[in-house]
Amino acid sequence: MFSVSRDYAPPFGMIAPFFIIGSIFFFVGTVLLLFLDPLHGHFDPMIAGWAHWFLLGFVMMIIFGAMAQLIPVVVEVGHYSVDLYYMIWPLLLIGTLTMVTGFWIAPAVLPYGGLLVLTAMLIYLYDTLMTLKKAENVTLTVKTAVAANLFLTTGIVVGFLLTLAIGAGVKVDVAWWLGTHAVLVLGGYVVLTVMGLSLILLPMFGLAHGFDETPIHRAFNLMVGGVLLHLFSTLIGFSAGRFVAMLVMLAAIAFYMRQVWLIYKVRARKENDIWARSMFFGYGSLLVAALLALVSLFADWENVVLASAWFLIMGFVTFLITGHLYKIIPFLVWFERYSPLVGKQKVPMLHEMYPKKMADWEFALSAAGVVVAGVGILLKWNDLYYGGVALLIVGAGFMLASVKWMLSFGKAESGE
Amino acid sequence: MCDITKEQVYDAIRNVIDPEVGFNLVEMGLIYDAIIDEDCNVKVVMTLSTRGCPLHQMLTQWVKDAVEMRVPGVKNVDVEVVWEPEWNISMADDNVKKALGAL
Q: Is B52 within 8 Å of A200 when comparing Cβ atoms?
């Protein structure tokens, strides 16, 4: 006997704030890019503040909201304690704002912001690991989720120590540990999480079957090995180890790109909707970011490092997130407002629940903005960078409007 | 003796639409079999286009509801989700393949 279980699906009202806040941070984050000067290099507190605004307020906020829905789906068990998510977004929101204030205005508050963010992450980690513990089928996606969350915790602890160094004068070599903080959070958490989820989501939305999974297993092992090698090399002060670790992580990305190509080749769904186009641009950006990172390993050019980070964050991570928002938000809204009506009245299809024209504008302007600004950073041509940022801001405005449109779909009819 | 036919069961399930792709489960090729016993108990054997589908539980419930509501005389309806053979696009009707760009 089956019963319609909503155990796997967290309440809409619980997840919606993650997407609303994340989208606002995304839009404001693109506006704040106007106040940065890429010629200042990545140790500039303005750039560090912006990076935390964008990565915590937008990237992490959206990932956490998406994970609230995706983790139970992936591991086929309900959350250990889904109510914990009510605490995560306020802590992350206040922590992020405090940290950014610390970077830009008052360094003394940085540790307090760091502590709030750390608390939000630990709560997220607790629920996630306790949920994963219930999984009977330990797939690669489950393994990546465990590894990614352990790296996230380590990365945030390192980050917290850095906030103590900057804000409270604790003796830590900030320049030496900053790279490892970025590797743990971006490589160890964001990229590993994307790898694990894409093994589920790319075949699901592309209707791809029967592909070889060897490359993703290699990518997972190499990425975990690379992040660990970087961490231990930092601990023992071994520069060559950090260099090799970067090469190992780039090899992981190469295998991951191979896996994405294998999935793409056998996809049954050939239509290039907003999701598919966002994936194309995102993976293209990852390729550019990886090539630039490779160059930067052999030549100490600050503009190449920044351009690599730009394409990784604004091209790859951002487009993978925005592309999936056009799938995830309509599904959440549909599940909340229309699934009880199935069989009783006509219900909309998911592709009817996002604004196609606005999404097209968002994609075109954002993609153009990423490329133009990225080239501007690479050529140290600030006018080009600011021109690209202007395009990106308009694109992000369309994204914000699209999110509002999707969240409001059917609201009037449902009497909310 | 039960006079419910497989065709009746399949016709009932044709009303269940996958909201992601917009096709019914029968034309998607997701329904593998409908077993009807002498007492008019029905067992539907089906698959899903992907493991980890967020609609897993809802789709199976909709199939059960559709058969119970639309097939006269049916008693118990059971829905079994299997993963062998694994679904692929060749199992779908031509109109689905064409719409998705797979033809």
A: yes
The alpha-carbon gap from A56 to the nearest alpha carbon of chain B, in Å, equals 26
Disruptive mutation site among A202, A342, A351, A352 for chain B (greatest number of B CBs within 10 Å)? A342
Query: Which CATH number is B6-88's, of 3.40.50.1820, 3.30.300.130, 3.40.50.720, 2.60.420.10?
Result: 3.30.300.130
The tally of domains found in chain A comes to: 3
Please give the residue range of the domain that contains residue A66. 1-137
ipTM confidence: 0.80
Report the range of poorest mean pLDDT among A35-44, A309-318, A400-409, B81-90.
Answer: A35-44
Q: Which residues of chain B make contact with A331, given a CB cutoff of 8 A?
A: 20, 54
| CA–CA dist B25, B12 (Å, integer) | 10
Tell which of A2, A266, A337, A350 to mutate to test the B interface (max B CBs under 10 Å): A2
Are A8 and A88 contained in the same domain?
yes
- Please give, rounded to a whole number of angstroms, the shortest distance from the CA of B59 to a CA of chain A: 9
Contacts of A297 (CB under 8 A, 6+ apart): A243, A246, A247
- Chain B hits for A204, CB-CB cut-off 8 Å, are 49-50, 52-53
Distance between CA atoms of residues B48 and A342, nearest Å: 18
B102 interfacial to chain A (CB closer than 8 Å):
yes
pLDDT of residue A416: 63
Across A167-181, b (16+ Cβ under 10 Å) vs e yields beeeebeeeebbebb
Determine, yes or no, domain membership for A221. Answer: yes
A411 found inside a domain: no
Q: What confidence tens digit (pLDDT) does each residue in A296-355 have?
A: 988 878 899 999 999 999 999 999 999 999 998 998 898 888 888 877 778 888 888 999
Domain ranges of chain B: 6-88
Between A341 and A203, name the one with better pLDDT: A203
Asked if residue A203 has a cis previous peptide bond (ω within 30° of 0), the answer is: no
CA nearest A332 in B: which residue? Answer: B54
Distance CA A107, CA B15 (A): 61
- The string of pLDDT tens digits covering residues B46-78 is 998 887 777 777 889 899 999 999 999 999 999
pLDDT per residue over A45-66, tens digit each? 888 899 999 999 999 999 999 8
